[in-house]
Amino acid sequence: MNAQMNSVEIKNLDLHFGAVKVLQDLNLTIGQGEFLVLLGSSGCGKSTLLNCIAGLLDVTAGQIHIGGKNVTWAEPSDRGIGMVFQSYALYPQMTVEGNLSFGLKNAKVPKDEIAKRVARAAEVLQIEPLLKRKPAALSGGQRQRVAIGRALVRDVDVFLFDEPLSNLDAKLRADLRVEIKQLHQTLGNTMIYVTHDQIEAMTLADRIAIMKGGRVMQLDSPSEIYNRPRNLYVAEFIGSPTMNMVDGALAATQFSSPLGEISVEGYAFDGGAPDATPAVLGIRPEHIASGAAAAQMPIRLDSTVELVEPLGSDTLARVNANGAPFWVRLDGQATLRPGDALPIGFDPARIHLFDKASEERL
Fold first, then answer.
1. Is 78 helix (H, G, I), strand (E, B) or coil?
2. Domain ABC transporter, which positions (predicted)?
């Protein structure tokens, strides 16, 4: 990706609050028109990084470039960004139209240009019938659309979203998630989006940056992160329920654990199979066959059902195989009860192996 194609570049960024290192030597390049999601649990530094890009926090060291220009110490208004916050932060005394146009009036944008931008934003977000209403007369979803519209009228290249859907109910979140994706397809602007919700990340992102302790643990496409997690943290963070993990020892192509000896000959090692090392084997619940289908798998185990969670479209069962707990995803019509015997099995090509000490993928 060449320099002129990069929309946002973060170089060796540090942010310290006293002795606390919130961001550490962070490097990130976001392409023109890319939808990048910053994903992680609370306290990982994702919103802090977004606030640094926006200019709301002064960095300790490093540089931030937007559109090829060094904006590390520029005012937020001079960075060419539009920001949507978790809280709607609308002016209650103003109409929707007033909220959308307020920033433009302060920036002395000509009246006809303001009217044109407000009309375009209202059309894109389908809030034209709401322009004369005040925020108190709007639903949560409508208020969030107005908040997005306020960023949209700035006519900038980069949009920053800080957990914009976290205050909404589940259905509204799903609806607005679709609208944000369509908005990105329509506008083609660069979007950087912070969330702790992995479904939002997987469905919206071109690439996901998974963060922990102020560092990026993996930066990849959603499919690469799901199919080839780089380390144990990413493997356990992505997926619901989480990836099943079993501790053991790896010697050449044999994995020894409470499950017994498992041949991992079908596994594609990143740097050749190690001679002997403590390792962790991971397998996702959806990659475990059960019942009659388990008999067709190279690796087969007997298990006992401990817990059943019917979800409608599918059923989750927690089982115990030789003392190791496993989550298994089954058909929604499965009729299992705690205590039932359930044969399970999987293909070695579907497993993930991690070094126990470094937690890195083998």
1. helix
2. 8-238
Residue indicated by tokens 């192509």: 253
Indicate the pTM of the whole model.
0.89
Domain with CATH 3.40.50.300 in the chain: 3-236
* Architecture (CATH level 2) of domain 3-236: 3-Layer(aba) Sandwich (3.40)
Q: Identify the DSSP state of 291.
A: G
Amino acid letter, 226: Y
Domain with CATH 2.40.50.140 in the chain: 245-355
What are 267-296's pLDDT values in tens digits? 777 776 777 789 999 999 999 999 899 999
CATH fold of 245-355:
OB fold (Dihydrolipoamide Acetyltransferase, E2P) (2.40.50)
Kindly tell me the burial class for residue 104, based on how many C-beta atoms sit within 10 Å of its own C-beta (0-12, 13-18, 19 or more): buried
Residues in the chain: 362
Query: Please, are residues 94 and 130 in contact by the beta-carbon 8 Å criterion?
Result: no
DSSP string, 131-155: TTS-GGGS-HHHHHHHHHHHHHTT-
Helix axes of 170-187 and 111-124: crossing angle, nearest 10 degrees = 120
Longest dimension (CA), the chain: 75
Residue 273: exposed, middle, or buried by beta-carbon count in 10 A (0-12, 13-18, 19+)? Answer: middle
Q: How far apart are CA 243 and CA 285, in angstroms?
A: 7
**Alpha carbons 210 and 194: distance in angstroms, whole number:** 10
Residue 238 region by backbone torsions, left for phi larger than 0, else alpha for psi between -120 and 50, else beta:
beta
| Torsion sign over Cα 122, 123, 127, 133 | positive
What is the rounded distance in angstroms from the CA atom of residue 332 to the CA atom of residue 316?
A: 9
